[in-house]
Amino acid sequence: MAASMASKLFRAGARSTIRKVSLFSNGLLQKGPRRNYDRHRMRYLKEMYQKRLDAGPEKPRRRSEWINWNYDAEIYAFGQRLGEEFEESTLRQAFINRSYVEGEKKKRAELGIDIDAVPLQLDDNTEFANEGSVLMSSYLKVYLRNIYPYMFEEGISAAHDYLTTDEMLAHISKHIGCEDLILSEEFPTSSATLSTTFKAVVGALFSDKGRERAEQFVRDFVLPQLIETDINELWQIVNPMGLLKAVLVLSGKGEPEPRLLWKSGANTIMSLYWVGIYSDKDFIAKSPGETILIAEEMAAREAIKKIMKTEDSRAPLVLGAAAENLKLDYERVNVSAEDIIRKYYGSEDPQKNTSTSL
């Protein structure tokens, strides 16, 4: 009897111990990482992602349609963000597009409101845009002529046209925060509207703070677009050798003499020729090319770069604080390549090749 009772107690104690060990081990497993514990969550996310793809992209909405939009605060923040002190009324007008004014008049007419009795006190930014366009165009040419005094006027005009395209000004306008502030009937806003708005901002600054401050604004936001651009690539010269010949002869030097310096792989598809240009036995420039003609043309372009002092090793643009004391000659006009061509090839010397033109 005693043995039987002892056996029962032993088995009961063993079961209790095994149960405690099992609970303890399960607790340890629960504290550690469990494989596939979020499989239901992943299935849910995949389903929602597929629904997003089926629904398509969200329809573009104006920034003013969001509940946290405050136009007055954004107008104030625009000037502070750029470090400019605008008159609030002037800055507001700079963002009013003509289509917005016409749209408001049309809405009033549909509601039967007499426009003469209750005039719409809104002026669009056309006048500011015209003033800003004239100032910006004038200052860009003055700056480029003084920074590149030896560059031909055609190159200056090409750089100016590159900086004043609607696409370039729209790019600048969008990145300084104009897009959300424009009052216009069209949406999404076109490049032409963004460009006009940027010009109007320049005109508004000119109206409030004067020419010097507006020119500084143009220098800080428009001219830096040339930093990663090769200014020589903006002006396409049709006949560089003809221009080089005219420049050298009119400056009292000998005509350019192209010479083959060396070549490699002439009978293969990887042919390479190096051509150098000399004048009065003085080396001017050299360049490689796939053929002799290509190498000669590229060498002539390199020589023109040296004449204009716009080679790759040229000094960077003077911008920022370094340009504060920059003295610009507003009456300066660079030499025109067209005038040089006409002066040289328009002479009656029969030895000159009149068939070559720029």
TrEMBL record:
Q: Name one Pfam family in it.
A: DSRM_MRPL44
Q: Which GO terms describe its biological process?
A: mitochondrial translational elongation; RNA processing
Compartments reported by the entry: Mitochondrion
Say yes or no: keyword Ribonucleoprotein present: yes
Q: Per the record's keyword annotation, is Transport included, yes or no?
A: no
Cite the Gene3D superfamilies for this sequence. Answer: 3.30.160.20, Ribonuclease III domain
Where the record annotates domain RNase III, the positions are 75-210
Xref: SUPFAM superfamilies = RNase III domain-like
Per UniProt, the keywords (alphabetical) are: Mitochondrion, Ribonucleoprotein, Ribosomal protein, RNA-binding, Transit peptide
This protein's GO CC annotations: microprocessor complex; mitochondrial large ribosomal subunit
What PROSITE patterns does this protein's entry cite? RNASE_3_2
- What domain of life does the native source organism fall in? Eukaryota
Q: Tell me, what is one Gene Ontology molecular-function annotation carried by this entry?
A: ribonuclease III activity
**Which InterPro entries is this protein grouped with?**
Ribosomal_mL44_DSRM_metazoa, RM44_endonuclase, RNase_III_dom, RNase_III_sf
Give the family this protein belongs to, as stated in its UniProt record: Belongs to the ribonuclease III family. Mitochondrion-specific ribosomal protein mL44 subfamily.
**What's the protein name?**
Large ribosomal subunit protein mL44
Upper taxonomic lineage: Eukaryota, Metazoa, Spiralia, Lophotrochozoa, Mollusca
